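For the sake of transparency, this paper describes our internal protein records without simplification. An entry from our holdings is shown next, in its original layout:
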Amino acid sequence: MTTEYHDPDGVFPLLWPQLSAHLPLRNLYWKSTTRPLRAIASLDIDFIPATSKRSSRYISLDGALSETSDNGTTAAPIDSEGGSANQRRHQIPGLRPTPYLKLFLLRCDDKDLYKSTWRPRIRDWIKEHVTLPQNSGALTDHDAFEWLILHVVLPDTAAAAQPRFRAKKDDSGNVKERSSKFPGKRNRPLLEKLRADFNEAGKAGFERVAQIRLARDAVPAGLLRATLPAGVTPITESVQEQAAAWNDLVGKLKSLILSSFHLRVAQYEEDVREKELQRSLPGWNFCTFFILKEGLAQAFEAVGLTEDALLGYDELAVGLDSTIVDQLCETASSQASRLAMNTTALQNQLKSAMQGLEDGSVDRSEWSPFAPLDVDTKDYRGMIVSNQISVFDFRCYIFLRQMALLLKLARLAPTFQNNKTTLARLSSESTAHKNQDAVPLADLSSRASQFASLMGRTIRQDFAFGLSGVDGQDDKINLFVDLIVASWTFRLLQQVLDETVTSAIASPTSMREVKAKAEPVRKHSFPKRQSSLATTIEEDAIKPTNLDEDELYLRNLDLSKVEVIRNSELANAAACRADLLVRQRRVLAQLGDIRGWRIESLHRHIARSPDHEIVQETRLTEEEIFNALGDCRILQQAMNSQQHYQHLYELLSDHAAWFYAVANRTKAAEQLIVDQVLLRFDAGDFAAAAAHFSKLISTFDDWNHIEMSILIKYAECLRRLNRKDELVRVRLTILAKSTSAVRSSVRHGRKRTKAVVNNLENENSHVASDEADAISHFENLVVGSRELTYDITAPLTMYFELIAVSKDISLEGDGDGFSLPVKIRPFMTAPVTLDSVKVQLVPLDGEKNEELWLRTSQLLELGSGLNQLCPTSNVNIFGLFRVERIILQAGRILFTHDLSQQPQALTSHLSQEQSQQYQPQAHSVLVYPRSGAVSAYIQESSPIHLQQQRQLELVIETGESMIHGGRVTIRAASAGLWIYTAKATTLNSENTIKLSTTPGEILLQACAAHSTIRVSIPYKADYTATELFIKMQIEYRTDAGEFIFKSSSRVDITVPLDVSVQDTTKQESILSRFWLRSVTERPLLVLDVGLEPSKKYQTRPLSKQNSIALVSNTHPLCVSYRVKHVKDIHVDNHEEDQPLVLRVKYKDIAQDFVARLAEKLRHDLADTPYAMYAGMLSHSFQETMQIATRTIDWKHAEMSGKIQLPVYASVGLADTMRSLYSQQATELADWVRNWYNAQTPIQMQNTSESSRIRDSSRELLIDVQLPEVTYAFAVSLSIDDQSSTLICGEPQAATLRLSYTTIWARQHLLNREFVYELDMPPDTWLVNGSRVTRFKAEEGEEIVQSIGLLPLKAGICAYPQVHVRVASPVDEVIVQTELKSQYQTVTVVDGIKSVTVALGAEGQLSELTKVVHAAT
């Protein structure tokens, strides 16, 4: 924004330091009637002195003149548009720059001098520069401006002693203006006189006067007075007053500049609309319209509305395209208004390239420099004004202006306008990059890419219009044109890259913390390479001005560790820079095609057809190519040799990959790295190529053709490097890619017909040619894998179609194993050979250690059709399993399919999408042995002796097989359980086992068929357990082969019977009462109870015991026994007593009930077509029925004596039948349901044993310890009066007899002193004497004591109680007293002889007397 100032007295240099502190103007707001409100953040103002015949000067205070410069700015003076009335305005409005504001700097210190000299002089200036041009018509609104008078007051002058206004300050310190009461007086300050003379009246008028008072420190000392004039008293302004003055000046500058800007914009818009309407009229010229509309854009640019200016140039670009179209269609009205379709410089460059420079006919100086767009080389505006510009130059100028505006929006100064180098600009921007805007940079890069394409077509059209005078072959001319277009496009892109360099976008040099400070800022837009792919090109061989980096940097580039730009706008700008670099690389590749140098890249691989290769018939010499490339030194040196060409190609790829990486465009960066890897592969650097191939395979997982070629090259690298393990993995991926067509058809439900197979072969024909060999991919894979020392896992569904896995097992004829059919179809078109097929079954309860593996035993050859495989297992087990995994093994390759979870790629080179194919879902399989197979179970051994080490009983039933030998392995599955197999004993008459030195193992001898082996094994548990979990495995040999029986047993070791005892000790015997009850709700059937005697004691029941008794937790069974010493048998007292043993034989009614039903089911199935399922159903029924018995109402069963079966749905047999998928499953389920519903209630006390049912009775042995009594006293109390009735209050004589024995003591003690105590209610008996008496007695001696008793209470009274204890209590001494008179009573009556009772009428009872004669 230009402001012209008139400074007659040269005060502007004094004013400029303070004025520049308030610039640029900020926060301006402009509102037009046709546009929304615009906010101008900052506005730069250029102060330019006006041209005057008088030289600028300073006038000192003493009147001396001093010559000085015009101002302190660097702007050159320009002519004022209104400086002279005779000055002619340009015919194109706005072509010349004119000021928006004219400023008159006034220095006047005296009112009289103002009145006599300066007021007429200012009026003359206004008339000359403002009024006269407007009235004469020499000035229109295209050059509209405003004017302002600025009064500059120097210190120590008369004007400095005057106040600004005749006013007082308000409370806030602001100057408050007011008018004088006497207008005629001459006491107004100079500022008020100026305002009164030159301010415009009315509301719409502007204030044209402002005043600035300079401080003493702002004026040189030579211009200050030594002494003040008489009568002058200086006024010192406060800081607030000075700030208010400057704010007043800045506000007036804003309003006046916006006013002139508004007038100019309105005029330009009106002219543009007028010219636009005249577009179809004859004589309309686009160049004139362009200059006019560009003036509007420049007006917007001048005030900082860069977006509006850019929009104007965009509209002009569209208008130019429309004009060119009209011109090509010959719609232009006159030849004068037509644009030139050819450019002289381009034509000269083509002619010189074709003719050479020997004759000197063409001067190389006419060629364009390295930067194709430069305002210094061509006068674009002059050509536009003279209507001599070509289409090519016109497009270049518009893009040049757009680039300048975008750089201004990005807060970057364009180097082509201010002649700054990129280095200097980066140095100035390194500390201010936070204020830069990256959006315009990205926009500029995007526009540059589109502009390069447009200009390529424009140059070709330019040559097409100007080749009439050029001699040469058409093909050769086309090659020259291609070289010129490529050179110009490359230089254009390079110029944009240089212009958009900013320190805000990371580069490799800025990422290095150590070298960033030491190294200078790079000169060009390419980052410096850091340790990259090895290159053999000497650095001295190629040294272009822009590509002087020492090496590439992508060898160690890890995209996952690159510091990504978090700002999305900066990231987009970095990505756009990468796009320009890729565009440059594409141009370079086109030049390489002309020289016959072909570099394998990703994009070329996509476009390449195996049947069509580019054949360049016409060749150019190296000198011809250099001439056509002009002054583009980079391309000339790159075309010098193939090494230089490849070096530049790699450099561009590396830089583009870097910017893509920091912009988080990982896929694009990986594609460029692939191009680098292909170069390494062609150069024979297989190690570097393989390292990058391994990281980039997954980038093209959706591009089957591209990934296949890369994989084959990767495999070739690994083969050359002899890396066998990785080679096998890559060949797995190649095999998967080669079967993708068939796999895709299967996934979408299409049948694999011959046409599909042929289509597969056609799609992969180019792949097969790259790896032609005598054997197929599959055979290569298998042969290579056999050299490995470990297995490699691959997803099965990538190579085979898993049709179905059978849900029903097939039982072997004579053996105890089974098989599971699997249907598979390979995706390969040729037959394949497998070493084995394995299927893993896992129990549904989740116990992985019980998994089963089914496998084939010989090689299998699979055809291209449907194949049914039957892997077998020699395991004899019962349970519900889930098909977990299927493995096809070929060499060291394991094709695995896991049916229990979502499929995933098990190799590093297979993508997630490829492995997520359709697959059969996991299902359950019921595994069961054949009827008559070997079976075994573990239970707690009977009898159960609670005080001794408990035993487990192993029962093995050989069934229909004869066992020739085997081994039993028993493992504890419960914590703290110890099983002592080394102490195992056989319970059979013949010896069928042999102990092993290996813990947990028992060896089996030969056993006949239909025999039972019973083995007792002691065990110990570290804690009180209620059940034991034991895993058992039996490996045995039969005539049919070797088999394994597996079982997981849960052994209930809780004793369901609770026994309590109550002992009563007497001198001759001990009376023991035993109470037996069930600990659960289920009743028990007690078959026999007995207390076995010992050597020392004999036992005798007190009553006859029932043979069978039903006990429960609410109805116990009581049995009593009398224990006595055995007479005439000597037993050493020091010998430990042998305890008595209580033997209880009982039967769990629930278990017996379930066993009877299961055996009945097996027996009934034997006569049906379902006999083969008898063992499986009986086993399943017994397990499920044990759980169903919990729902039986046992109290009702106890009362009725019958057990009612649960409903069929609660038993669980229906679930078992649903797991059976044989052909007879439905009929078998109906038969089992009907059989179960036909069963009648079972008697609870039915003890009849069947030969088919094993004895389910249990025997419990409990050691019974007799109570230890040291002294067993026999005490009797008798009253001497033998009558049955005693008189209350009459003393009675009684006799107490005491004796004791020590036969129940385990050790004899010395005779002690005893104490007996009479215990009686105090209101019933009164003792004559002491109640507690000491006495001594010998064993067997009877002590007789006489005591006196006095009955105190009438009624039936019990004899007093007698307690005996030792006089001195000792812990080991136990005294038991047998009071023989404990239950004796006596009748006590009152001693009354007679009673006389007198009766009278009511009311006379007070006169009655009653005489009672009591006995005396």
In short: Residues 321 and 422 are 33 Å apart (CA to CA). The chain has a mean pLDDT of 77. The first strand starts at residue 2 and ends at 6. The chain is about 35% helix and 20% strand.
